[in-house]
């Protein structure tokens, strides 16, 4: 069933791609060509090869028909865009711009927020890069809108889920590893005034060194505790208003170009920021971040809070789920009642996907137990304390309706949506001109 689920997900999912950087031969001739046309829209060989490489990089098998299925999906996406014009399915410029802004922030974060690093890597300006991907993003949004339109209202009944499951050969049913339901309540200690004051004093000393002539970038590389920007000298690149923490933005925008702020606090720690340039609604800055560490008494206060909460839960004064929603400092799990979630939004998680620290903690617990407060470091690098609730454990097993209903239901729904999209494709292709390079006849896409 795993292979069936992957096939269904591939056929219903939206292929996300970045602009391919075409390779040139030694003689300078670009190796690329059009391999499919759908009305005025084209699929390049580089589109197919880049998407196929991404498919393999995600751990998918290099099956004989994988490239054909990807080509079919690329053609289907072009068909959706062509049909969207005919059917007047519209994506507004505002939607495209908002998505582009979010995408650019995500891309820039991979380069420490540095536009210079991105420009060096791609060999083009940020404006040129944005122009390259804007049309792709608009196309992706149009395809997504069309898919939503085509599959809206599709649901599966319990009878359909059972029929789907029964259609899978017994020897094709996957064997799932141990799964657990585990929840957490996290308490990040309130940092004492002494620790905040010490961090501010250190940053004031660093600020004075910069004003005296030392390099801000060199000091950021040495002292900043922001893992994303420290290696780039604290450079964050251009950001629009509303992107950074409010306190950070307020401090940066009070400055004149090249001026350095006094130390200030955000949820991430204590900063100094230097404004480099303002450009309309955007500003370019760099910073040095220190994350003040909690004292032993700060940590003890957090432990005592969780101990008290654990006592209330065990006395049935409050459920673990409600306590997590009201008191946990972890935004990712608090809304789920503290539970870790799988990719489908279920609370049963494979032990293979658990954080190793959580896994080994559960190994010493019994189902139904709540752990004592445990010190750990959050993904953001902060010292914190948590309690874990070990709700249930499902032993390794072959897929069955009783234990795996949610997974099977999702696969059945995806298969039904896939059929709707395939039916739509077979009907819609009569309304447009489609041409596919003879080299891909073996795929049988138009059969």
UniProtKB/TrEMBL annotation:
Keyword Signal: yes
Keywords: Isomerase, Rotamase, Signal
Positions of transmembrane segments: none
GO molecular function: isomerase activity
InterPro entries: OMP_Chaperone_SurA, PPIase_dom_sf, PPIase_PpiC, PPIase_PpiC_CS, Trigger_fact/SurA_dom_sf
The organism of origin for this protein: Fulvivirga kasyanovii
Record keyword Phosphoprotein present: no
Cleaved signal peptide residues: 1-24
Ranges for domain PpiC: 177-277, 280-375
Protein name: Peptidylprolyl isomerase
